[in-house]
Amino acid sequence: MMKTSRKALASSLVMLLVALYLLTGCSSSEGATSKKTGKWAGQTLTVQMIGTFKMQDSTDPITGQKVKGLNTLKEEFEKQHPGATLKIVTMPWDGYIQKTKTMVTGNQADVYQMPGLDSGYAREGDLEPLQPFIDKDHFDLNKYVDNQVEGWETIGPDGKKRIYGLPVFGDTRFILYDKKVFKDWGVKDLSAHPTMNEILEKAKQMTGKNPKTGKQNYGVYFSGKSPEWLIVNAAEAQNGSWGSGQKFDEMKFNFDSPEMLKGLNWLLDLSKYAPKGITSDQGSEKWLTKDNNIAIMLNQGPGSLISKINSQGLQKRIGIAQEFNNDEGKGGLFAGSPFVMAKNSKHKDLAWEWIKFSSTDFFQKYLWEEYNSIPVIKDAKKWKSIKDESQFMNPIFDALSTPWTPHYPWVNGEPRLELESQVQGALTGKISPKAALENVEQKSNEWAKQQLNNQ
């Protein structure tokens, strides 16, 4: 009996192993042949993405929660496009400009994440205009948050403004403030749309020894390393602007305008109520902690903001207000990243499919819930994960829809660097505000002429 049972057991195990082998073999075979069949058979699409992305699942260092890897997008895209293979090339923000240029020059990808769309790629003919694809598919651009598509329009090699990229990663700027500090000083919370004077007066009122805690408070903080956006936005608050034109032969700069000068003087006045380390980005180390000593934070971005607020239990303490808008409700830096299609891509139809895929709820919700990337589609407002954070996300969506568009055409060129440098000089007392802005105006005009001559 024992021998018979052992033989029967052995026979059963052999049959089971054979069955498993055949099953595995069939599955592998089907997996291999699936790339050889289907509408997109044999096509490999290469996509470049910038940031802290990982292909495999990982752990968020702030929340300790599991973060789904980019394989989530890869699997879904390949499932929706039978026969296609998706290859995602990731790179960190550090050095991304040169790395992207190397990839574009070497025709190494079909689709690029390109925050610096105005840096010349479209003008030089490296990118494919998207309007023909949009028209062919009757693709509805109204699905995007207002102003997001317009922000990425840029000049092509024919000198005409076209859509070369569609928004994917939302970004914007706003003002944050600490309600507890305001309450300690008996100062009313910021308005939803504060004026330059309101910011200045309230910053002045809340600088000194906190009447409740006895500790030193500062009324305001801003980045002294990147103050250029504050000056431009202050001009917009007065119905001024940086200038006009996107073509180099049509650009007119207003950096030495009365509005810019008033904005710079306003910033110098504000600096009296900020920590001394602002020019080296020091002095805000306690921000978003329970020991915070700063009342107002200017020119803030989303990033991992909500995660930090939640992890510190500061939901009821942090308030949010809008940057300055002109009388038309427009103002502030347009930021973020679009996807663009390489002119030399051999898989343009599949590349377009990826760009469309990036506008879906699946893609946008993945970026939001896994990487805190602000969605660029209107339907995101319906998601539970967005509604749960409505205190911050509603104002952020408002800010996302009102920036100055199109994208400042000089943002990736010499004018930005010159404006940054000259404003820093004024903040440190090395140059007068008037002379600083005159220098920016002169350098910007020279830059535009040089760019025109280089075409």
TrEMBL record:
The protein, known as: ABC transporter substrate-binding protein
PROSITE patterns on file: PROKAR_LIPOPROTEIN (PS51257)
UniProt keywords, alphabetically: Signal
Residues making up the signal peptide according to the UniProt record: 1-31
Pfam families, A to Z: SBP_bac_1
Superkingdom in the source lineage: Bacteria
InterPro entries assigned: Bact_solute-bd_prot1, SBP
Species of the source: Pullulanibacillus camelliae
Transmembrane spans: none
